[in-house]
Amino acid sequence: YSVVAARASVTSRGLSAAMALLGGPVGAAVTAALAIAYFASGSDDASIKTKKLEKHVYDLSAAYQSVKNYSALAKIGTNANQIKNYNKTIAKAYVELKKYNDLAANTHDGRTAFGYKQKAAAIKSYIDGQTALRAAVMQSNIQIANFNDNL
Q: What confidence score (pLDDT) does residue 137 get?
């Protein structure tokens, strides 16, 4: 019992000294009020800084969006030029295909007609390949557009 009493006595004297250092009960209350006021003003400052950070994050997000959009628009523009070139190439190939089909139909020599038909078949194969490439570029544009819409 005496050990516990001694510790309680030391603790009581320590608390009494701390209370005296703070200026008694009124001093302790004033110190607590000042601590709460400091915490509140620090909280207001943190709130302002958080709002500024949020604004900068939104600004960065807008910048990223515009960069992403410009990049996507540039790719779509490049693809559009490729599609235009494929269209021209395919149109020219169709003119050649018609020419060789007409030549094959109007010739009386079987061997010459066979040569024209072979040439027409090669052109048709070329047209199919160019059409497949054009379709792949068109699909790429669709994917780019869908990707940007879903972000």
A: 86
25 close to 19: Cβ distance less than 8 angstroms: yes
Q: How far apart are CA 104 and CA 118, in angstroms?
A: 10
- pLDDT of 129 > 70? The answer is yes
The full DSSP string for the chain is: -HHHHHHHHHHHHHHHHHHHHHTHHHHHHHHHHHHHHHHHHHHHHHHHHHHHHHHHHHHHHHHHHHHHHHHHHHHHHHHHHHHHHHHHHHHHHHHHHHHHHHHHHH---HHHHHHHHHHHHHHHHHHHHHHHHHHHHHHHHHHHHHHHHT-
The answer to whether the CB of 76 falls within 8 A of the CB of 137 is no
Mean pLDDT along residues 27-44: 62
Q: CA-to-CA distance for 77 and 67, rounded, in angstroms? A: 15
Percentage of the chain modeled with pLDDT above 70: 59
pLDDT band at 103 (very low <50, low <70, confident <90, very high): very high
